[in-house]
Amino acid sequence: MTSIDALMRSVPVIPVLVVEEAGHAETIAEALVAGGLTALEVTLRTPAALDVIRAMSRVEGAVVGAGTVLNPRDLDAALEAGARFIVSPGLTDPLTRAARDSGVPYLPGITNAADIMRGLDHGLDRFKFFPAEAAGGIKALKALAGPFGQVRFCPTGGISEATAPDWLALKPVLCVGGSWVVPPGVPQAEIIRQSALAASRLRAA
After folding, report:
1. Which CATH entry fits the domain spanning 4-200: 3.20.20.70, 3.40.50.300, 3.40.350.10, 3.40.220.10?
2. What is the pLDDT of residues 71-90, one digit of tens each?
3. Is 171 in the active site?
4. Residue of 30, 80, 128, 190 marked active site
């Protein structure tokens, strides 16, 4: 995967994963890949997250990234664990510079026009719209996208299987992030595979 744009276009849904136990990692990744979702975002919200990234990276076909990356220290730890892309909830200058210098595909979170303008100043034009529903939903993103014709988004936060097609129908949206694909608890491979299969078919017409 050579760019964040290519990653965003590779799947309609990027599963946002909060995994408590590294022992569950390969089962989850194998089921997601079997269902057609290959770009996997492992959030750095649990003590096991870096080990989860390492384990999922061993699964053939999985492109594993780190989410909830908050600063350059998180970035370095994620890259050391094998993360192939980086997602952050917001856009800060120190993290953006560190991600740019590392060369890793980077998807920072934005909520408003000032965030986007700051990202553009850094040479970025692909962003996570977060938290998508709480920040005003589709109406807000349409208004926000208007002045920035070259910018494309991955809305994340509050999106469900039922609402994802409405987001994916928007021209500025290349994919969405969603936590619904993998239910909490002990992973059941076939349930995850079927959920991933349904998500992989959500691409806009």
Report:
1. 3.20.20.70
2. 999 999 999 999 999 999 99
3. no
4. 128
